[in-house]
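Quick one: structure for this chain?
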Amino acid sequence: MYEFIRGKIHSMLPGTVVLEAGGVGYRIAVPLSTSGKLKGGETLLLVHHTINAEQGEERLFGFLTERERDLFRALITVKGIGPATAITVMCAADPDDIIRLVAAADVAALKKFKGIGPKTAERMVTELRDDFSKWERGRPVRTGAGGTPALQNDAVLALLALGYPQAKSEAAVAKASEKLGTTASTEDLVRQALQLV
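Got it. Here's what it folds into:
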């Protein structure tokens, strides 16, 4: 139903952001990988909307990157993992670490996440391992490529897709590249640039 919400941060706690857009305050649950990077002011969050008909409750979950939202959506396809558990898992570890644990079939490590028992951890590996292995292989190489024009261009295109103007996108990516140096991936550049536009 909702793809993204752009607005001013009204209030923020670890794991929760109230975003004011069009005179409406949206309470959005976010993983720590997102809330830790929000500084205030205007921001854009990619959202996932859930409706719990039994409890008559609607919830919004927000993310700074497509990768985070894709991970969340993959996690909630596993039987035994609801949206609240998925956010809890994502708050406990970096998204790339979760992807690596599943791709490596590390059931022992996955069981340590709150809300993930042995059977659920095994289901995560069984149902997500093949996809997550591809995600890991498809990740940009982090060594020696961050400052390349190709990665900067990809980051600018990502910002344009989120609705930011060309000039602001290019300036933010250039600043992000200077700050992060040559080890930054496209994803790193986009995350940093989102804080600067």
